[in-house]
Amino acid sequence: MLRLDRVSKRYAQGHTALQGISLELEPGSMHFLTGHSGAGKSTLLKLATAMERPSGGRIFFGDQEITRIPRRRVPHLRRAIGTVFQDHKLLYDRTVHENVALALRVANFPRNRIHGRVQAVLTKVGLEGHQNKLPITLSGGEQQRVAIARALVNKPDLLLADEPTGNLDQELADEIMDLFYEFHQFGMTVLVATHDLTQPNRLDLPQIRLQQGQMAA
Ligand code: ADP
Ligand code: ADP
After folding, report:
1. Distance CA 6, CA 17 (A)
2. Of 22, 115, 141, 152, whose CB has the highest number of CB atoms within 10 Å?
3. Distance between alpha carbon 207 and the CA centroid of its chain, in Å?
4. Which candidate, 25, 28, 7, places its Cα nearest to that of 16?
5. pLDDT in tens, 166-204
6. Residue spans in the chain of domains classed CATH 3.40.50.300
7. Atom of ligand 2 at shortest distance to CA of 109?
8. Where does the pLDDT of residue 76 fall: very low under 50, low under 70, confident under 90, or very high at 90 and above?
9. Number of other residues whose CB lies within 10 A of the CB of residue 98
10. Given the CA of residue 110, which atom of ligand 2 is nearest to it?
């Protein structure tokens, strides 16, 4: 599904964020990407979505080499990879339904099927009945569910999340991680970056450990 082959990333200022990263996510697998702040977790996720380019090595998504796809194909790639980033803000002047529907509109999804698709995904993330609310009226956990619905509504092949529970207390964090686990059980390939080391043990899932930009044993 996603394969990194000796990937490195050195930012313009000369800081090496990742070095010699090789890994493969099998279809349907779920992993946690763990490591201290600054270990390179976000950088790895940005490389996977072509938000950043690697300085060395190769990245494959299915049979396409991400680093070689033409710029015009990048939006297509991003629809195949659902992302829940910490800084993915919701549109606070739009309803929950509109926030999720927008992801379908920009993908030119058939207009007469948008409503049904949005309803279905909101139900899957446990937000049935909330579709006409503004995000500001929802709890932090519910807002994160809207972001997850938005990431999933285009039925991506891979779901990437960057510290999706960073602002939630432990109970809500567990609920959100359980939701990702549920999608994994339905066959979704999932990679969740977190510094919450309770999660891999709690869900009995493998970790990819980063330490100062390198794979840790
Ligand atoms: P994590 O997500 O594990 O906290 P990051 O991938 O955000 O780690 O950061 C890895 C390293 O790369 C850090 O030292 C960080 O300061 C540096 N870094 C991240 N983004 C940039 C950037 N845009 N420019 C320069 N350095 C960056
Ligand atoms: P596809 O079948 O290609 O995945 P659809 O938009 O036809 O996409 O359906 C997506 C989901 O939305 C399905 O689970 C379907 O049952 C549900 N759905 C379709 N139309 C409605 C509707 N009007 N109200 C509620 N759910 C709907």
Report:
1. 13
2. 152
3. 16
4. 7
5. 888 999 999 999 999 999 999 999 999 999 999 999 999
6. 1-80+156-217
7. 6
8. confident
9. 17
10. 6
Residue nearest atom 7 in ligand 1 by C-alpha distance: 42
Residue among 205, 164, 181 nearest 45 (CA): 164
Provide residues with CB under 6 Å of ligand 1. Answer: 11, 13, 15, 17, 35, 37-43
Q: CB–CB of 105/179 below 8 Å? A: no
Best mutation site among 43, 51, 210 for ligand 1 pocket (most ligand atoms within 8 Å of CB) = 43
How does strand 56-61 pair with strand 2-10? antiparallel
* Radius of gyration of the chain, Cα coordinates, nearest whole angstrom: 17
- Comparing C-alpha atoms, which of 127, 192, 124 is closest to residue 160? 192
Q: Are 34 and 80 in contact, with CB atoms under 8 Å apart?
A: no
What ipTM, to 2 d.p.? Answer: 0.69
Q: Which class is domain 1-80+156-217?
A: alpha beta
Q: Are 84 and 164 in contact (CB under 8 A)?
A: yes
Helix (H, G, I), strand (E, B) or coil at 27: coil
Q: How far is the CA of 195 from the centre of ligand 2 (A)?
A: 36
d(CA 115, ligand 2 centre) in Å? 8
